[in-house]
Design brief:
The chain has 13 helices and no strands. By secondary structure, the protein is mainly alpha-helical. The longest helix is centred in the middle third of the chain and has 26 residues. The radius of gyration is 24 Å and the shape is elongated. The N terminus is likely disordered.
Length: 274
Amino acid sequence: MNSIKIILVSASVLALSGCFENTRNTEQLCNKNPGLRCELLNINDGQCRIPRTDLIWHRHEVQKQPTDKNIIKEFGLVSEYRKCLELAAQIQPIDQTDLKQRRFSALMHTGEELDRITGQLRQSTSPEALYFLWSQIGDERARQAFLRMEGKPQLDTAEMQYALATFYTSRDEGKTIKLLNRSLELSNGKNLNTEVFKSLASTYYQINMKEKAYIWAKVAFEFDVPIASEAELHLLYGFSKETYSELDDVADDVVSALKSGEFNRNSLKAYGSI
């Protein structure tokens, strides 16, 4: 029996290591896919290895699925690699003038890539692309096109409802709250955007609805989102012991509904809608 266990464990380890090698052998991936242009990324430099590897593997993913969401993620990974290169380019390698030149060339390539990706996204009319161009590039036409989609099915997703809420944050608190809640409803318990909790707590606090602000601060706390400790929350709001107990129960109901994918701002008892 022990020998069987050893064989099974060994087989599992070999399978895992083989899977790891097959999926993370970056040099092999580059050799098989010249379209990844790895030679422009200073592939053999020990500096910036992790962001470079992440970028190369995601480029491969973009080749397979060139969605706007993947392209936007590529922009972020190029930006991260560029930040690292900017620091690495300041390092004076010992007797390696060629290495310094390769780092500089890779840095120039990332700038060209950011321009290329931005230009590619400008050809799209998807809400993801428009929101990216507006929020990250400052494209006013993209902002107007995105806002014209309000109320249409294209924006009725968890991500886009949150994106739309960011526009109204300083303009219409009521609409902001409605959009943030809708974002949570559409999440169905998956990939919850914890920034929504902080935004709801902050917005309610700004309009002096402190009970609801506390509920969302407590929800954030339960999801390990750093707003404040439980003791700090009690000092900040100054409710009675009975009120804290009641609001904590409501927050527990919200957390349970969020985790189960059954959250609906109008169906949770004890506080009406939030």
